[in-house]
Amino acid sequence: MTAIPAGRNARVGIAVAAVAALGFSVSGCGASGDDSADPNGKITITVNDMPAKTDPVNRKIFLQDVAAFEKANPKIHVVPHEGQMDPQTFSTKLAGGQLENAYYVYLTDPAGIIAKHQAADITDALKDYPQAQQVKPELRKVFQDEAGRTYGVTEGNYSMGLVYNRTLFKKAGLDPDKPPTTWDEVRTDAKKIAALGKGITGYGDYSKSNTGGWHFTAEMYSRGGDVAKQRSDGTWKADFDNVTGRAVLQQLHDMRWTDDSMGQRQLLEWADLLQMMGSGKLGMYLATSDNIPTIAAQYKGDPKEYGFGAIPEGKGTLAGGGGFMFSPKNSPAQTRAALAWIMFKYENPDRITMGQKRAAAHKQPVGLPEPNIWTGAAQKTKAAADKKYANQPVANYKPFSDAIGAIPLRLEPPQAQKIYAVLDTAMAKVLTEKNADIDKLLGDASKQVDALLAAQ
Which range is the signal sequence, renumbered to this chain (predicted)? Predict the structure, then answer.
């Protein structure tokens, strides 16, 4: 959910030798008369994604990487900006020449940006970075057009799974190494956990502040459904007023009112389930793996108590994350220089081990199954580094890690936040009204979403 981004670990970049080699070609471009370079051939680039001063550890790491990059590339000067791409000001900044040379986007953004020609084509420049081919194909595809041309690179990713309390599983007679893999099993296990009493909730779900619609979408994807579907003419239409949508809401209704496994407290939003898990009062909920260190840091939970399993059914999982695209107003030299920085900072396996060691030394989470953008040899490098420097209970995440490779990754729908706001109502009604009319809720929501999609 883009309104609640997954936590992002300290990230690392490319081997100095490779960047130094590219730095020569970049400086050559600038020296040959390109107006992006000063008289000495030095190119200045602006980039965003620098952590705020309120995140001093990751800001320090970011600035250390800027210094290391500039040392390896003396012909490139990096001017970092805080924040990321703001859809509300993006077009204005682009038109006014204020957009950074390399700018951060969520994975839901590239298709629209590419269609509007608001990013530079980096296909040819990317050939200097063979390690980019080790990024998961589905993540690379997000930044490509229909002709296969590339306009950006991936920084990180997350996907939804099942966070659960291993201690409560044991007390309920369940195997903490085998979390439920179907929604029927979720329902059965939730009843057993709720039967422990003492205010314990078996399964929790959201229904407020767009989080209800976010989880409805994740649950639709898990069952192989959609929330919005693109038609042959390129337009979009709601696609949840169907048997799959009814199954999602009916199960939640039955767990709430028939099984009494979801507790009486409803209209929950993002922090509520983390707090419940941290207090030992919740058995399971859908989340991303970075919720676990957040529960530990903010809600005094013990990371060793929590497991992370694959999303039930596994026919699809809501995935997100982000990456970087490049201003179409860049000179060729600026684009190459900006790409050199992005690859240095975010996308190279040669410094994964150093990065995990550094993150562990700064007490940042190491050992979570995601972000993990890699395949092949790079994935093996990450796994080895995670094992060596882990400060998280890696074995507890094995059910997720073993399954995620076979589960299709699905991005958020267009107009995601507005759609989520509409779907909050359906989630809230089935969890607060015993006689909620599921068919009417889905029908009304579908009409509203169709209107949103038609107006985009």
Answer: 1-31
Per-domain residue ranges of the chain: 16-158+320-395, 161-318+403-455
Indicate the DSSP class of residue 316.
-
Strands (E), 75-212: 76-82, 102-106, 152-159, 161-165, 201-203
Q: Residue 165 — φ and ψ, nearest 5°?
A: -95, 110
Cα torsion 325, 331, 335, 338 to 10°: value is -100
Q: Is 194 exposed, middle or buried (0-12, 13-18, 19+ CB in 10 A)?
A: buried
Q: Which helix (H) or strand (E) holds 378?
A: helix 376-389
What type of residue sits at position 438? I
Peptide bond preceding 371 in cis form (omega within 30 of 0)? yes
Give the whole-angstrom CA distance, residue 284 versus residue 205: 9
Give the C-alpha separation, 16 to 21, whole Å. 9
Name residue 74's amino acid.
P
Q: How far apart are CA 62 and CA 52, in angstroms?
A: 10
Tens of pLDDT, residue by residue over 183-232, are 999 999 999 999 999 999 999 999 999 999 999 999 999 999 999 999 99
Residues 161-318+403-455, CATH architecture: 3-Layer(aba) Sandwich (3.40)
Q: pTM of this prediction?
A: 0.86
Cβ 131 vs Cβ 375: under 8 Å: no
The 3-state DSSP class for residue 202 equals: strand
Distance CA 155, CA 12 (A): 10
Same fold, 16-158+320-395 and 161-318+403-455: yes
Distance CA 47, CA 369 (A): 28
The SS3 of residue 157 is: strand
Contact (Cβ atoms closer than 8 angstroms) between residue 194 and residue 219: no
Do the beta carbons of residue 46 and residue 81 sit within 8 Å? Answer: yes
Q: Distance between CA 106 and CA 250 in Å, rounded? A: 32
Distance of alpha carbon 74 from alpha carbon 42, whole angstroms: 8
Question: Is residue 283 within 8 Å of residue 164, measured between CB atoms?
Answer: yes
Strand partners, 55: none
Identify any residues that bridge with 319 across adjacent strands, giving them in sequence order.
159
Q: Which of 282, 285, 303, 286 is nearest to 294 (CA)?
A: 303
Tens digits of residue pLDDT in 292-333: 999 999 999 999 999 999 999 999 999 999 999 999 999 999
